[in-house]
Amino acid sequence: MGEENLSTMKEKLVQSPLSKLLFSGEKDSSYSLESEGRLVLLLGLGKEPEYKTVETAFRRILSKNQKLAESGLSLDFPATFTPEQTEAGLIGLILGTYSIGFYKKEKPKSFAKLKVEVHSALKNIDELVERAEKIAAAKMAAFELVDLPPNKITPEYLADWAKDLGKKNKVNVKVFDTKKAKSEGLEAFLAVGRGSAREPKFIILEYRHPKAKFHLGLVGKGVTFDTGGLNVKTQGMHEMKSDMGGAAAVLATTKLVADLGLPIHLTTIVPAVENAVDKDAYLPSEVIGSHAGLSIEVIDTDAEGRLILADGLSYLVKNYQPDQLINLATLTGSSIGTFGYQCAALFTNDGGLSHGLQQAGEGVGERSWPLPIWEEYAREMDSEIADIKNYHGKPFAGAITAAKFLQAFTHGHAAWAHLDIAGVSFMDGEFAKTKTGTAYGVGLLLKYMEGYIGKTEV
């Protein structure tokens, strides 16, 4: 709450008004006291709190005060709170129940029986609560998919997760095994999975709504663990369970779209593989095929994500013809070198799509910023022996050349966007002592889709 809301709270407290020296309502501040036998926690949000600020502040309530929330709590939203701010607060509160301690002998505290009262001046507060519960559930699903270890989150696990979603929601799910993927010409996808004992799974989810006027296609990189292949990684390999952050985002988004019943057609593809090393692993300098019919010279087996995405993008465009096409992937360290951990790198051939994604991301604290995809960069991916190579091998424009590689497999689709989320999907934060999943993309895609649906209904 900002300073303007303090007077409202003070009237509800029996004790004397608080001194501004104790609590001024500044962003990221808090103050606790007892009043009439109840513990009162005041959250400082600043004067004009953004969506993410509110979500994070409310997430701290249960995450940081587990022992104090025994049987119930009461949320008192200021009268000045907008529906968006209230939604963010409700989502944040639920996210505070999430813990990464899946395998600890002493299990994390359960909040299943915690009773929560919500006080708000908004007339549609019950609807907001229900909506917030669905968004939070999707985000926590994305958290879990990234945070669980790679011996749990395998290609088969992701396929089973999708099938389970199909049983509970109106989502049609198809899963291609190796034999089916080969018959469909998904050669680049299969090449990456050759070195693993775990069979790759090409996962397709179809959500259809009778009132839809818009068809969106999503593709998420699903490398459940990345050793680098024969170009084995020399550092940071223990974090490579997160290399399916794009898959987590699009799977959780599909769940959320179905839960909310959005009037949209959504087709989601997750090429799920493990990039491992054995006698069958694909080789540097090998030339492989692809669904699009382009031959690919493999320069680096650690540039595997773009290979599976190439087949995913091609298959989606050729078989489903979506109006717009968006892929999310933890693709390059180059994107982190450019933007750090503040935003995703955005590449798109459509100005409206670029603006829409940026605007949606700003609204929910999941930022992206565009980089160019000029044709001059495509020359860097020219191969002497094949149609294209998977890596240019130079210390510049790594994220851009990777995007140009992907674009070559979109069959000239006029509205395609690539979000390189390497720096934002798995991060250090205040809610764990190690890097954890952020669910980046879930809020952004929901905001974008709802905004686009609103435009088509006008």
From TrEMBL:
<keyword id="KW-0645">Protease</keyword>
<keyword id="KW-0378">Hydrolase</keyword>
<feature type="domain" description="Cytosol aminopeptidase">
    <location>
        <begin position="143"/>
        <end position="445"/>
    </location>
</feature>
<protein>
    <submittedName>
        <fullName>Leucyl aminopeptidase family protein</fullName>
    </submittedName>
</protein>
<keyword id="KW-0464">Manganese</keyword>
<dbReference type="InterPro" id="IPR011356">
    <property type="entry name" value="Leucine_aapep/pepB"/>
</dbReference>
<dbReference type="Pfam" id="PF00883">
    <property type="entry name" value="Peptidase_M17"/>
</dbReference>
<dbReference type="InterPro" id="IPR000819">
    <property type="entry name" value="Peptidase_M17_C"/>
</dbReference>
<dbReference type="InterPro" id="IPR043472">
    <property type="entry name" value="Macro_dom-like"/>
</dbReference>
<comment type="similarity">
    <text>Belongs to the peptidase M17 family.</text>
</comment>
<keyword id="KW-0031">Aminopeptidase</keyword>
<dbReference type="GO" id="GO:0004177">
    <property type="term" value="F:aminopeptidase activity"/>
</dbReference>
